């Protein structure tokens, strides 16, 4: 019955290539989301350290907000999470698929 047990790693690779554990994640009461913190949360979900539901509950995020972070990382890496550059990366991504 090992197949039915959920496997949760003790650590995953963080956005900067360093090991990331539950203790390394931003605190639950985080209000200021800088690029590194967003990328750490996305890496935690992608690596299986936390589930999507746990992240939404832990940080009081909406599904849309987290999904936008995940999309930004997938498309443009950590730079895509910069609030000041969202429109630039969105335009760049749309141009790539236009032609």
Folded structure, characterized:
The chain is mainly alpha-helical. It has a domain at 40-99. Helices cover 48% and strands 4% of the residues. It has four helices and two strands. It has helices spanning 35-47, 52-59, 63-76, 86-98; strands at 12-13, 19-20. Strands 1-2 form a two-stranded antiparallel ribbon. A hairpin with a 5-residue loop joins strand 1 and strand 2 (19-20). The protein is globular. The model has no long low-confidence stretch (mean pLDDT 86). This is DUF1153 domain-containing protein. It comes from Pelagerythrobacter rhizovicinus.
Q: Residue ranges: pLDDT <50 for 5 or more in a row? A: none
> What can be said about the biggest beta sheet?
2 strands, antiparallel
Mean pLDDT: 86
Given the helix and strand composition, which structural class is it?
A: mainly alpha
Order of helices and strands: EEHHHH
Give the beta-strand count. 2
- Give the strand order of the largest sheet, numbering strands 1, 2, ... along the chain: 1-2
Q: Supply Rg.
A: 15 Å
Q: β content, as a range?
A: under 5%
The tally of helices reads 4
Our measurement of the CA-to-CA distance between the termini, rounded to an integer number of angstroms, reads 50 Å
Shape verdict: globular
Helix content: 40-55%
